[in-house]
Amino acid sequence: MLVVLTVTILARLLGQLGVAVVNRMRERGEELRTLVHRALLAAVVLGAVGSVAAAAGARIAGDVDFDVAVLASAALVPNLLWQTISGVLLGQARVRLWNYVQAISPTLTLVAMLVLVVGLGGGVRAAVLGWMLAHVATAAFALVAARDVWLPVDTPPLFDDDGRTLLRLALVMGAVQVVNLIAYRVELFLLELYRDVAEVGIYSIAMQAAESMWLISAAIATASTAPVVHGEEREARALVARGAARGAAFTLAAALAVGGIAPFAIPLLLGDDFASAWNPLAALLPGIVAYAPVAVLVVYLSVRHGRPRLSLGVSVAAMAVTVAAAVVLIPRYGAPGAAAASSVGYAAGGALAWLFFSRVGRG
Which of 47, 97, 152, 306 is the most buried (most CB within 10 A)? Predict the structure, then answer.
C-alpha cells in the first residue's frame, strides 16, 4: 500500500499534461500533435525521474522490499501516458473513448488480482505486478486507439517557451489534485489523533457514502469540458454556470435521498455497530452539496483560462478551514465534529470557487 500510494500521488501530481495540452491549444491555436508530443515526452521524462525517486525512497526507508518498489514504480510512466492521452481526448469531446481508457485500468487490475493472487495464490509481489501490468496495458490501448493525435512522431523541444508553459500548467493542476487528495482526508487523520480507530472506521463509512455523490458533478464536468474550452466566452460562462447549478441541484436531491434512507440502510447493510455513522453523514451532506459545483467551475478556471492557481487556492482554502474547524470540533464531538469541520471547509471552498468564477468572467 505504501509504495502504490507513493506512485499514485506522483501520478496525481504529474498526470495533468493532457489537460494542459487542451488549454494551450485553445490559447495559442497551436497544432495539437506538436503539443501532444511535448506532453508525452514530458510524461516519459518526469515519470522516469519519479519512478527512480520512488524506488530509491523505498530503498532508503527500508519499509518495502526493493523489488516490490521497483515493480510499483514501473507503473508510473505508463500511468502518465494514458492519463495524458485521456486529457487530450476529453478536450476533443471524445468521451466514449475516454470512458474506455478510464475503465480499462481498474478492470484489468481486478482481473489480474483474481488470476495472480486469488487463482495462483500469489502474494504482494503478484498483486503489485498485476497492478503495474494493468497500467501498461491501458497505456498501450490509449496510444493505439488515439494514435491520430500523436502520429507521425516528431521530437519537439521540451524546455522551450511552450514546453515550459505546458509543464507549469500541468504541475499546478497536479498540485490541485494532490492537495484535494490530502484535504479530503485531513480530518480523518485528526480524528485518529484525538479519538480512536473505531471512530475513524465509523467516520470513514459516512465519508465514503457522502463523497460518492460528487460523481454527479464530476460527470457534468466531464461532459462540459470540450464545449467550455472551445466555445465563445459568453457561451462557455453560461454553460459552466448552468452545469455548476445543476450539479448542486442534482447533488442536493441525492443528499436528501441518502439522508432519508441512511438511518435504516446503514445498520441493515453493515450491522448495528455502524449505525452511528448516520450522525457524521448528516453533518457532511450540506458541505457535499456546497462543494459539488467546484468540479464544473474548475473546468472554466483551470482548463479554459489556464489559471490553475485559482483552483489550487480553492483547495488550499478548503483544507485550511477544515483543519481549523476540526481542531476545535473533533476533541469535543468526535466523528460528528470531523464531519461538521469538513462541511465548513467544503462550504468555504465552494464559495471561493464561485467568487473566482465571477471575477474571471468579468475580466
Answer: 47
Count of beta carbons in the 10 Å neighbourhood of residue 174: 25
Q: Where are the beta strands (DSSP E) in the chain?
A: none
pLDDT digits (tens, 9 = 90+) for 298-320: 999 999 998 999 999 999 999 99
Asked if the bond preceding 152 is cis, omega within 30° of 0, the reply is yes
Closest residue by Cα to residue 17 from 196, 172, 216: 172
pLDDT in tens, 99-133: 999 999 999 999 999 999 999 888 888 999 999 99
At 294, list the grid cell.
467546484
Structure confidence at residue 27 (pLDDT): 60
Amino acid at 335: A
CA distances from residue 52 to 47, 130, 140, 324, 357 in whole angstroms, order as listed: 9, 20, 22, 36, 39
pTM given for the model: 0.86
CA 177/CA 13 separation, integer angstroms: 7
Distance CA 231, CA 168 (A): 24
